[in-house]
Amino acid sequence: MGTPSDGTTGEPATALFAGVSVSAGGSQRAPAVGPRVQTADAGMTADAGRSGRHIGRVVTAPLSAVRAVLWSNRITRWVVFRGRRSVVSIALLGAVFVAFTSLALVRPLDTQRLLSDTATVRTLFSALLSGAILIVSVVSSISSVVLSQEISDIETTQERIDASIDFRRQAADLADIEGSPGQPAAFLEVILYTIYRETRELQRVAERSDNDEFSRQVQDFTETVLSAAKQAGTTLDGARFGTFKVLSAGLSYDHSWQLNTARRIQNRYADTLTESESAALDDLIDTLKLFATGREYFESLYYKREVARLSGMLLYVSLPVIVVISYLMLAMDADLVPEFSVGLLSGQALVLLAVYTLSLAPYVVLTAHVLRIAAITLRTLAAGPFTIGSGSDHDGVESELDIDPESWESDTAGGSESRAPDTTTDEGGIDGDR
What we know:
Elements: H1 13-18, H2 40-46, H3 53-72, H4 74-82, H5 85-106, H6 108-115, H7 118-150, H8 154-175, H9 184-207, H10 212-236, H11 244-252, H12 255-268, H13 275-333, E1 341-342, E2 345-346, H14 347-359, H15 361-379, H16 408-411, E3 425-426, E4 429-430
Antiparallel strand pairs: 1-2, 3-4
């Protein structure tokens, strides 16, 4: 994909990216935007004396530590994100078979006695057979939901196409290019470069500002945005839609926090901003909104494709499972299970363990797909400027309004001169700056 050039300096995107100083290890840090910014750890210490918040943070801290350890494990990340769902399903089934076989080798006599009870075994496989047949109806329901969103009248289809064209035209105008790319990964990469360029412009404007506090807050904010945009753009470079590279960029880029912080900076200094400063903030906010819209749309497309793949794979797996379980139940009634032994295990035990593992295939396939969909949903949970994810528990620019309920009575105890706190919300959260 051709790299767009900077509309002001003429620098190519790659050269402009190279001008950013990234923190050691490429990690993103929460910016200390002025004197009112708190990181998650600092916020925990500052709120230690407040009822409710401190308790909640203390309780969730061990869970967050455990979750961080799990996500840092390469095997966990492969199972949840990187691995192909078919390969993950086969690996999980293999792990189940190895686990049952190991238990059987440890206690061979108990296993033989357990599996010799044909009535119990027949009941177990009957339940699994019913479940496999039920999977077919589940697939039909899923397919109906997916198809219902695609079947529409010509007017609705035309409106959808016009909206897509307008969205791409808006992206091309902001990026100052002739036309936006058609591939989702390349499209997001262009938007990220535009965010990078607008952030650099905001940084240059803030350096010339006479307001030292505004300049300091913007500098700290833009450092984090530049680092995040560069990292996400590098991840998306050459990626193909549906691969882990695109997912990784979406998971790691916290556009909600950036949009929230930019809005609060704009609101705080609305009366003192120069024309160039206001324009730079407006351009960055518009581009962040565009990125949020594009990412949410492509995420919905990804979910659609994953659900369609899940439906097909469940059908492919369910039919062999139904046939094998039905044949095994008939063979057990006719006493046709082969008699042989492998070490300490009998042939009947091995056959039953193998068929039992195979009968779990539909559920394992469903688990592998739903696990990744749920994990992606949790990691990309966002609602525009609201920071919902667990990793974004600070607002960047702290509101001047203390919303601790215990302080409300003391704040209003001054008589008629004291006014009630303004809890009006805007796009950036609690608006205590107006």
